[in-house]
User: Fold Receptor-like serine/threonine-protein kinase from Hibiscus syriacus.
Amino acid sequence: MKIENINPRWFKFSVLFLFMCLSHESHVCFAVDTISTNQSLSGNQTIVSAGGVFELGFFRSGNSFNYYIGTWYKKVSRFTPVWIANREKPVHDIYSSVLKISDGNLVLFNESRVPIWSTNVSSGPAISSSVVAVLLDDGNLVLRDGLNSISSTILWQSFDHPTDTWLPGSKLRFNKRTNQSQRIISWRSHDDPAPGLYSLEIDPVEANHIVMVWNRSRPYWTSGAWDQQTMSFSLVPEMRMASLSNSTYNFIYFSEENESYFLYYFYNSSTTAKLFMDVSGQLQQMSWLEDMEQWMVQFSQPRQQCGVYALCGAFGSCNEIGLPFCSCLRGFHPKSETNWNLSDFSDGCERTTRLQCEEDPNFVTGKTDKFLESPNVKLPERAQAMSVGSMLECESACLEYCNCTAYAYDSDGCRIWMTELLDLQQYSGDTSDGRTIYIRLAASEFRSSSNNNGIIIGAVAGGVGLVLCLVIFAILRWRRRRMINPTVEGSLLAFGYRDLQSATKNFSEKLGGGGFGSVFKGRLPDSSIIAVKQLEGISQGEKQFRSEVSTIGTVQHVNLVRLRGFCSEGMRKLLVYDYMPNGSLDAHLFLEDNSKPLAWKTRYQIALGTARGLTYLHEKCRDCIIHCDIKPENILLDAELCPKVADFGLAKLIGREFSRVLTTMRGTRGYIAPEWISGVAITAKADVYSYGMMLFEIVSGRRNSEQNEEGKVGFFPTSVARAITQDGDVLSLLDPGLNEDAPVDEISRICKVACWCVQDDETHRPSMGQVVQILEGVLDVNVPPVPRSLLVLANNTEHIIFFTESSSSPSSQTPSNSSNASS
Ligand SMILES: *[C@@H]1O[C@H](CO)[C@@H](O)[C@H](O)[C@H]1NC(C)=O
Ligand SMILES: *[C@@H]1O[C@H](CO)[C@@H](O)[C@H](O)[C@H]1NC(C)=O
Ligand SMILES: *[C@@H]1O[C@H](CO)[C@@H](O)[C@H](O)[C@H]1NC(C)=O
Ligand SMILES: *[C@@H]1O[C@H](CO)[C@@H](O)[C@H](O)[C@H]1NC(C)=O
Ligand SMILES: *[C@@H]1O[C@H](CO)[C@@H](O)[C@H](O)[C@H]1NC(C)=O
Ligand SMILES: *[C@@H]1O[C@H](CO)[C@@H](O)[C@H](O)[C@H]1NC(C)=O
Ligand SMILES: *[C@@H]1O[C@H](CO)[C@@H](O)[C@H](O)[C@H]1NC(C)=O
Ligand SMILES: *[C@@H]1O[C@H](CO)[C@@H](O)[C@H](O)[C@H]1NC(C)=O
Ligand SMILES: *[C@@H]1O[C@H](CO)[C@@H](O)[C@H](O)[C@H]1NC(C)=O
Ligand SMILES: *[C@@H]1O[C@H](CO)[C@@H](O)[C@H](O)[C@H]1NC(C)=O
Ligand SMILES: *[C@@H]1O[C@H](CO)[C@@H](O)[C@H](O)[C@H]1NC(C)=O
Assistant:
C-alpha cells in the first residue's frame, strides 16, 4: 500500500511553508498543514492540508462547552468531523488549551497544562527535536521526523486510530499477532463524540468478514465472507453492482503475515465520501452532494434500523416504521430524557411505578403485580426455559422471582426473563415471526386509566356549571377552528395548523403513507378537496423551509401535482396539494383480480405524461429538480386518469432524513439507479433509470421482481431485454389482462425506451426530453444493448439476480440515431 509514502511534490510544498513561517520569525503560523516543534495550536487556529481538503483544530460539539481537537472537511459547508483526538476528554477553554509537539509527541494540554491526550509513541531523544505533525489531503494526520525529508518514517498516524469514520485510503486492520481488531466506534450521541456502543471491526475468528458489534461483545451484523472474485461480501450483494460498474470505488482485502486489512478508495479522487458508524448503530456510506449542500446516505447496514442490537436500550421497543424508532414499553419512561431526545437510546427505560415486590421485599404475595400482553413482537434474548404445562403456571413461575420481568408462553413452551429486556422489537402488520410477551408491571399501572375516568365522573357530578363552561368553551374552540383563513404567500396559501386539523377532520381520513409522511384527505370551506401531507423529520429552519416550499410552489405543470399551500408552525410542517381522485398508479397497475386493467392507450398516455412532467422538472424550471423517488406510488391520476408526478422537490426539504427514507426504500425496491449505491454524484439520469423501471411495470402490469407461477423469482426487464434484442414476441410481454389488445409497434417502442433508460452507464441513458420525443414518435429509437447487469431486490429476502447475456459494446451507441419524423 502506498498511503504511507509521502508524495515528494507535496512534501516540498510543506517544507516551503515551514520555511516561510520560520523566516517570518513568528512563533505561530497557521496557513500551513504542519505543526512543528516550538509551534502550538490554540483557540481558533487551525492547520489545513496542502490541497485544502481537510482542516484540523478545536471544534465544539453540542450545546455544552465541550471542545475537541479534530479534523474535518474544509470544503464541505456542513461541518463534518472525521477524526477526533480527545473524544473522551473534552476541554472547555480553547484559548488556554494547546496542541503541540512535546518530547517527540503531539500532545494536547488542557487549561491546567495537564496532558490529556498524546500520540504516545515512545521516542528516542535523537528525533524529538525535529518531529512534526502534518495533516495530509486524505485526512491522515501523521507524526514524523521532519528533518529526514522523504525517507522519514511515520511515527504515528491518525489512520491507525480512527474514531467513527473509515476514510478512503485508510485500513481497517486485524493484527494477527495479538488477535486484536482495530475498531471504528460510533459517537455516543449526535452531540457527544465519546465512544458509543456500536463498533465496526474485522471478525477476529474469520478475518475476511467485517462485523458490527454491540458494546464490544455482541455481534449483530456480519458482512459474510469476502469474495475476491466478485470483489464483494457474500451478504452485501449490492457491492457486486458497484464492482461490476467499476467506475466508482475499489474495495480491497489483504491478508499478510502479521496483519490482514480492508481498504477502499474512490477512483475519482475528488469524490467526497466516507464510511462511518452512525450513532444509530448503522454503518453508512455517505457522499457529499455539492449542489444540494447535503450528505446523502448511499448505503447503510443493517438495512433495517431495528436490526441494530438493543438500539432502544433496556425496556425499550424498536419499531421499524416509527419515528423515532424507539419508544419505551408501556409503564416505562426514558431513563435520561435528555439523551433520549438526542437519539441516544442506550440508557433505555425505567419503570414508572416500582413493582410491589421491589417496594417491600417482605411482602408475601408479589402476586399483586400484573402482566401486560404485548403481541406481535420479536422476543428479547436471554430467556430461561421453564418446564411448566400451562400459561397460568408460567405466569406464576415468573411471579416467584422479584427480578423476573416478563414471560412468554406459546408452542415453544414457557420462558421467563430474569433480566432487563433488551432488543425487543415491535412488528407492525402481519408477520409470522411475531410472538406475544407478557411484561410485568405494578398493578397500579393497570388502574391508572380507570382512575382518570373516576376524576372525570367526579367532575361531572361536582358541578353542572363547570360542565356548562366546558361545553361553551368547546363550542367556542370548535367555531374558531371552523374558520379557515389562510393567508397568501407568493403563489401559495399559508394555513394555520388548526385550519388543516379542521379541514381534515382531525386527520381522520388517511390516503396513504410514504417516506415523507402520511397524507390525509381534507375539504376546504370552498368545498375543494385537498390532500394534506404531514411531513416528518424536517431538519430545516423556518426561513429555509419557507424558501424551499415557495420554490416548489412555483413549479407548475399539467403533469405535476400542484402544491396549493403549506403550514409551518414550529415542528408542524404540512403541505397542501390538490386531491387526485384516482389515487396512485400502482393501485391501477397491480390489481389483485385483474378485473379492470388499464387500457393500453391510457398506459401509453400515462407513460408519456409522466415523461413530460419529469422533463419539466429536469430541464424547464429554473433550477433542475431531481425527483429521486420515481415509482408508481408517486404517479397520481386525476379524474381523467391524467398522470401527475407527486412528491417532487421534497428531497431538499427533508434533508438528512431523506437519506434514510431512500436507504429504507432501496432495500425493498428495484427502482434505484446503480449510481445511488456506488457513491457518485446523482444526476437527473437517476430519475431516468427509475422511470425506465416503471415503464416495464406499466407494460406488464406487475411488479418487476414478482414471483411467477412456478414460484421462481423472475425479473421482467430481463425478459424484455431478451425479447427486443432477439426479435422475440413482444406481445407476450404485455399484461395478460389486456388480451394482446395493443399495437405491437407501441409496445416495442416503450420496451426499447425502458431498456435504454436502465443502462448501467448513465451517459447511455436518454434524457427525459428524448424519452418524450421517442414516445411522441418524433424520434426513432435503436435496439438498445442489454444492460450489463440488472440488480434485483426481489421481495424482502433481498435476493439478487444478475443476468449475464453477452452484450454488444454500448460505448458509441445512443438511443436515437435520427430525428426522422416518423408520423
Ligand atoms: C525550539 O526551541 C528551542 C528552545 O527554545 C530551541 O533550542 C530549538 O532550536 C527550537 N527548534 C526549532 C525547530 O525552532
Ligand atoms: C479568531 O479569534 C480572534 C480573536 O478571538 C478573532 O479576532 C478572529 O477573527 C478569529 N478568527 C476566525 C477565523 O474566526
Ligand atoms: C485538566 O486535566 C486534569 C486531568 O484530567 C484535570 O484534573 C483538570 O481538572 C483539568 N483541568 C481543567 C481546567 O479542566
Ligand atoms: C500513554 O500510554 C500509557 C501506557 O502505554 C498510558 O498509561 C498513558 O495514559 C498514555 N497517555 C496518554 C496521554 O494517552
Ligand atoms: C489468536 O487466535 C488464534 C486462533 O483463534 C489462536 O490460535 C492464537 O493463539 C491466538 N493468539 C493470541 C496471541 O491470542
Ligand atoms: C457493556 O458492557 C459492560 C461490561 O463489559 C457493562 O458493564 C455495561 O453495562 C454494558 N453496557 C450496556 C449498555 O449494557
Ligand atoms: C476496472 O478498472 C480497473 C482499473 O481502472 C481495470 O484494471 C479493470 O480491468 C476494470 N475491471 C473491469 C471489470 O472493467
Ligand atoms: C511480521 O512480524 C515479524 C516480527 O515482528 C517481522 O519479523 C516480520 O518482518 C513481519 N512481517 C511483515 C510482512 O511485516
Ligand atoms: C470527478 O468528480 C468531480 C466532482 O464530482 C467531477 O467534476 C469530475 O468530472 C469527476 N472526474 C471524472 C474523471 O469522472
Ligand atoms: C424531550 O423532548 C420532549 C418532546 O419534544 C420535550 O417535551 C421534553 O421537554 C424534552 N426533554 C428534555 C430533557 O430535553
Ligand atoms: C434473580 O433472583 C433470583 C432469586 O431471587 C436469583 O437467584 C437470581 O440470581 C437473580 N437473577 C438475576 C439475573 O439477578
User: Anything to note?
Assistant: The radius of gyration is 31 Å. Residues 451-483 form one domain.
